# Entry
Amino acid sequence: MENLIIIGNVGGNAEVKKINTAKVINFSVACKYKEQTTWYECAWWRNADDDCNIAQYIAKGTKIAVVGRPSARAYKAKDGEVKASLGIQVERIELLTKAEESSDSPF
# Structure
C-alpha cells in the first residue's frame, strides 16, 4: 500500500476516543498550496493500553508532518448535498512547531 506524506497546520485540538479494545486520535490538517487549502481528516489508531498523551500536543495551529495511508469517502451533508472528504490512516507524525510558533497558519 502506498503512503502519503503531508505537511500542514492542525485545524483543531486532537480528540482521543476509545473504541472497543483500541484508541483513536482524530485531528484535521490543512495543507495550503498557492491559494487553495486542502483539508485531511486524520485517524491515528493505537492499542487500548497505549499512552495517548501525544494528543495534547496536536493542537490547533501546530505545524505537523503526517505519514499514512490515504483514503477518500463520499457522504451526504445535512442539506442533502453529496460531498467528499480526504483522510489519512496515520502511521507516523512529526510535530514541526508548537501552535504559537506557527507563523503561516491558514486560520
